[in-house]
Amino acid sequence: MLLVDGEPVLSSAAGAASRVGAVGMELVAALAAHPGLRDAAGRLKATPESRISVGQEGAPRHVYVFQREFATVDPARVELVGTDEATTCIGVVIRNNRTGMTSVSHLDFPKIVEGGLKQMLELLGDDNAPFDVHLIGGFSDASTKVVRSSGKKHIKQEGYSYPLCCKIVEVLHKFQQQFNLRSFCVLDNNTTTDSLGNALPVIGGFVVQTSSGVVTPAGFDMNSRCPDEVVRRIRVSVSSYDPAWQGRLLETYDTHCDVFRIAPACWMPDWADIASSLNQLSDSEVLMQCSTSPAAEPPHFVENERRIWKYLINNPDWEETFPKHKPRVFHRTSDGSWSRYS
Is 231 part of a structural domain of the chain? Predict the structure, then answer.
């Protein structure tokens, strides 16, 4: 059940089984209008963004979560956990305040929400006290039917963030576990516009300080989106075709050992041809064909896509990436970076 300031959030649509998603829509409306949550979102947006990097002396130990992944971390082993690159996606934080165990996910599609949230709760422990929850990311993309750039207009499908947000709050509200909603920086509460009138998210990334539970806006340098960045990005795409991952978030991080285990993901040989074809597109065509929010993507979006395609072109056989169908295992080094175990 969702709580705000210790009080249950009520929905009159709880019994409206005939209206699919009615509970989620009513909850989103109530939460978006809540003065305390609006103030909290305002404070979060006013907080300067921190930059996360690795390889520097004294850099905090962190775990990075890619799209459609989750990680549950122990504050005894990890100081920061977070994600970025969220446009229409929504980041979820669930924290057990008694133990400090913290789970972060980067949700991108309503059909993975229920299974994904259950995965997040598995290692947080049983506790009678409510868990803290933060929802950050997504924006009012339903207004972006037209993407404007350099005087041109492009029609683009609308409305990814809203149904995702409705599903998240609906599922959290029906769980027996109680959740104190601390941040609701989503949709209208997380939307601004650029000089051309395109809607954009204000916050697209964040980190959680595991010792305190404090959440702040953050961006990650390329070297900090690790380990195994490109392969993990590829897994996001190929997992959509793998029945084993249907309705589930991708598991990558071993909480108990502070180790990344990148489970095998397979792709067909013709993906190399598809990647080669996509790599011929112009940058603007890549944005329009490969993004749910082309006007809102960070500057490195196209570069990331091309690095994925080049990897597939150079590695058409997935078994070369995952020899003997074994996971790719990475251990943390003394300077906070990661080294592949062989």
Answer: no
Residues 256, 258, 261: CA angle, nearest 5 degrees: 95
Note whether 131 and 179 are within 8 A (CB). Answer: yes
Residue among 74, 24, 66 at smallest CA distance from 222: 66
How far apart (Å, rounded) are the C-alpha atoms in residues 313 and 275?
6
The answer to the question of residue 61 being in a domain is: yes
Q: Are 263 and 328 in contact (CB under 8 A)?
A: no
Instruction: Give the number of domains in the chain.
Output: 1
pLDDT digits (tens, 9 = 90+) for 210-263: 999 999 999 999 999 999 999 999 999 999 888 888 999 999 999 999 999 999
Question: If you average pLDDT over every residue of the chain, what do you get?
Answer: 91
In a domain, 333, yes or no: no
* Partners of 339 in beta bridges: 331
SS3 breakdown of the chain: % helix, strand, coil, rounded to 5? 35, 25, 40
Which CATH number belongs to the domain containing residue 51 in this structure? 3.30.1330.200
pTM for the full predicted model: 0.93
Q: Which domain holds residue 32?
A: 2-225
How far is the CA of 84 from the CAs of 77, 136, 219, 220, 312, in angstroms? 21, 10, 6, 7, 24
Q: Is residue 291 part of a domain?
A: no
Q: How many helices (H) and strands (E) does the chain have?
A: 9, 21
